[in-house]
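User: Fold this; tokens only.

Assistant: Input:
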Amino acid sequence: METVDQYLSAVLEKLKSDGNVAIIYAGNPNDAGTVQFKSHNPRHWKSYRSVAEDIQNALKLLGFRNLFLLEESMLLPARLKNLKIDFAWLNTAGVQGVDSSCHCAALLESLGIGYVGHTPANVALMDNKHLFKIHLLSQGVRTAPYMVWRPEDDVRSNLNSTLDRFIQELKEDEQFEDSTKFVVKPVCGRASNHIFIADSIEEARELSRRVFTETGNTVLIEPFLSGKEFCISVMGGRSGVRDNERGWEFKQDSYACCFGQFERRLEDPNGIFTSMDIRPIGRDTIKVLSESSESAVLGNINTIARTIFRNLGIYSVIRIDLRMNKSGHLYVLEANPKPDLRAPSDEATSLVSMGLGQLGISYEQMILNQIINTLAHFHLYRKSIAYRLLTLDRSTCSLAVGKN
């Protein structure tokens, strides 16, 4: 097969002119026809349709001709077949059920449709804070001590309970020996929903029951980290531009491109970051880290982000949240496999979009880079999908943009 640059040059033109591309958002399980039977979603549901529309508009500006905005539902496989979808962008975290964030990716893997997004295993791992912590610890990446609370823990004697043992372990750790506050959070969630601070062990127990009642899932308890909070975005390091005379030109500066290294401005330094559902992301909610005065922190955050990105073999965008303890040591809180990708506007923006200025690229260029890195991955690892996309022929098909 040709070189990756030759492949990218050819397949991008094919996709733009002949490919049927779906941008998929989450269907509402309460709407008729979305699911066969209504069940439960431990993850706080959101449609993400408005961001899917932003992505669709960006792809249209980039020259993609056949774009379809589709919702994830029980009807999706039939719609993908009827519309002859060749390629998709996943802007969904699922409809309902356990591990909903990986359902659509798993479906497309089964159907043989290439997509922008994480593999089912990676998105499920990152979306489950408990499993992700196990992975971090196995890779030597520092994350806050934790315990998993389950409702059956309540029937055990307090003396031998998991929570009591956890507290004893903290007292024996010099980094957390004086911890008197705890963070109680769902194992899976979004936008800091159902996250609480407990000022005592008794309150941690009560809040764990409350979070379980709300989510129907296991609960994480961690010591409260009293230092600064940070975030960083990471995406694949390959990029490309098209010159009218020279054609496509690609470069890869690194495997992982780090940007959007921000300190998050907390309304209360003794609290946690307010949900974006309550306090929208804006310039007043973050502080850009300085390369001159904060180089050590910046370098540490970049190293952690690259380690996570490479060890999991990620090639699509993620955002990592970190926080310091009282001694200034950084701990990974989570990796968000589906960070907000809304286009910047006067009304709202996203942490990812706010970081693009550091790279000197536009929102549309970031969207294009996601496709380039995905296709480069296919060229190396998914040769059957890569070849099929290269041989698309829709010269006799009518064009349709934005159909549902």
